[in-house]
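EI: anyone free to look at a 321-residue chain?
SC: sure, send it
EI:
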Amino acid sequence: MTRSLRRLAATAALALLVVPAASARPLVAIFYYPWYGTPALDGDYQMWTQNGHAPPHDLYSAFFPWRGAYSSSDPNLVDRQMAEIAAAGVDEVVVSWWGWGSPTDRRLPSVIRAAQKYHLTVAVHIEPFEDRTAAAVAGDVKHLAELGITDVYVFDPMKVTAAEWAAVRPTMPPVRLFAQTGSVGFAAAAGFDGIYTYDIVTYTGDKFIRLCTQAHAAHLLCAPSVGPGYDAVRADGDHQYKPRRGGGTYDAMWTAALNAWPDAVTITSYNEWGEGTQIEPARAVAGYASYDGAWKLRGAAASRAYLDRTAYWAARLHIRP
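SC: here you go
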């Protein structure tokens, strides 16, 4: 073999080591919470009352939803939400799921139906419910696969050892399994297919390039999470705070995510109102924060500002090779 051919062969071998198993095009996925309830449809208020709040005017969020305190059991509401998400350029809705028989489990089929109407795929976000084990999740994945779920995100997977995950991974249907972690080594050893970060306070944009580089070197998919800000003090007294900066926080995180050449960008969140990470429309109400001032918009235009900005960033991601 000539020296030039040896050089080409070495270069090709190195490329094989660092090229990840990527999607046909990078995806935009958004975390979605179907856990809200109202007396009319669910017998009582669900989630809106957390930390002693008294709906419909006193809610557990720092922001006030444009639609007020709503029920995730309302098929018309879910339809409108899926329409908004699709119009924002999102490809996949990642539905919070708290185990068999939970309200989120019962509502999942209606979310799937509405999402399919707008050509959205549905993934599931497996939360740290009581007695969650690797074996339990493996069984859950089989159930979810029967509903057509092919992407599964596992929040806080390091509560279970990598060896336990690796042992049950071969028993799961052919789904893509994502670990919420900054430890690429753990995700690889545990048999996950990719990582995501979710927590936009801990995993700031300056960490994305390093995480995605490590993930791709380990042949894992990288799906860093971006979000508009964080404010959960009204919901649970958490004094961590990430200001929205008039939309600047969202733009900065998106810019960092694109610079990391991800396989997907995950958005925290569409409607986690308690943590103040939502981009679902909000309205200005006395005593609550609002989106007024985001990208210098006010009123009705500001209420949709984060959805509209998501469409801008999604379009930029989708043109990536």
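EI: Residues 124 and 247 are 28 Å apart (CA to CA).
SC: 👍
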